[in-house]
Each structure stands twice: as C-alpha cells, then as structure tokens.
Write a structure and sequence with these properties.
The protein has about 200 residues and is of the alpha/beta class. The protein is about 45% helix and about 20% strand.
Length: about 200
C-alpha cells in the first residue's frame, strides 16, 4: 500500500501528474436520480453512475488517472485529443470532462469553447502542467468549474470532480426545465395558429 491506494494504483507523482490522497479515504458512492447527485448505493434502473471524460495527449497519464478515478467508483472514458472526444457519443448520465490545456492539435481552451456552444454544455475541469494566470482566467471566464495544476493532490481532484458533477447536474436540471417551458409555449402557439386557420376556412354564413 502507498498513500492510501491499492498497490496497483500507486505510482510516482511525476508519472501520474497528481498526488494520491495522503489518507485512505474513499468517497461516498454517488448515484444520480432525476439529475440530482445524492449519496447512496449504486444500482437500479433509475440510478446511473456519473461519468468522467478525460482528455489528455499523455497516454500514460490517462491510464494512471483513469485507474485512480475508477478506484473511486467513477465511470471513466479517455481520449487522446479534442478531436477524438468530439466524435464520441456522450452519456446522458451526470458527467464532466477533465481537460489538459496544451495538446498537439486543438487546445483544451479551444475544446472548452466548442463545448460551451452546445445546447447542454458539459462542465469542465482543467488539469494541466502548463497553467498560468492568463490561461486560468480565460478558462474560468469561459465557464470552467475548476482549474488545477499538475501535480494536483488526489483528494483535491476527487473533490473537484464531485463538486463539478453536482454543479453540472443543477445546471442541467435548470436547462431541462427551461426547455420544457419553451416546448409547452411552442405547442400552445401552434394550437392557437391551427385554431385561427380553422376559423379562417369556415364558410361565411
């Protein structure tokens, strides 16, 4: 055992890009019911485990961080580039994306801009070795929930993921409510329009 992690997850911090927790703490299991994140047991058709998307061009780091998050009971999907991530079919479960800042083609900030334009944007955490005041300010201005510098502590990363999932679930619930109201208004407008058309076609008495 090292740093509270099973031996198969214990690797040097320089390789991981984050420092595992200093105490053997394991987050409470998280389940999502009606887009609200609550502690509880996983399982059941109405409960979906949160998913964390990892986007980083360092493949060894992706493998290490993926193992670390899976050990904390998250579902994880990894991508070596922004372009690869944008091609994937994303889950409807609660989710967030952990982005590197500097990648060979599109940067993390460029990917964040694309994600922010979506109707239902993904909440973003940056985890990078190349952060500075300018990039951090830009990321947060564009809506990033957190900006961490490698090597980040493992418990710090887990707290950021949990906080980001909760924030995203709240935002998504609000978005769905607004979308439902807009849909109801469109249906009401369409019904009124059909009524006016029907009256317009009636023969004159």
């Amino acid at each position: 055992m090292a740093d509270g992690l099973p031996q198969r997850y214990a690797q040097p911090s320089a390789t991981l890009g984050f420092r595992p927790p200093t105490s053997p703490s394991r987050r409470a299991e998280i389940c999502v019911t009606d887009e609200t994140i609550t502690p509880g047991e996983t399982g059941g058709q109405h409960q979906r485990l949160p998913i964390v998307y990892l986007v980083d061009d360092d493949l060894s780091f992706l493998r290490a961080l993926s193992r670390f998050l899976r050990a904390a009971d998250y579902r994880v999907e990894t991508f070596a580039s922004a372009e690869e991530f944008l091609k994937c079919d994303r889950s409807e479960a609660a989710r967030c994306v952990v982005l590197d800042l500097r990648m060979p083609e599109s940067t993390g900030l460029e990917l964040q801009e694309v994600l922010a334009q979506a109707e239902d944007p993904l909440p973003v955490i940056f985890l990078t070795a190349h952060g500075n005041v300018s990039s951090s300010a830009r990321a947060m201005k564009q809506g990033a929930v957190d900006f961490l510098t490698k090597p980040a502590r493992g418990d710090e990363l887990l707290e950021a993921v949990q906080r980001t999932l909760a924030w995203g679930a709240t935002k998504r619930q609000t978005w769905r409510q607004k979308r439902g109201v807009a849909c109801s208004l469109r249906k009401a407008d369409a019904a009124r329009a059909r009524g006016l058309c029907a009256r317009g076609r009636r023969p004159a008495q």
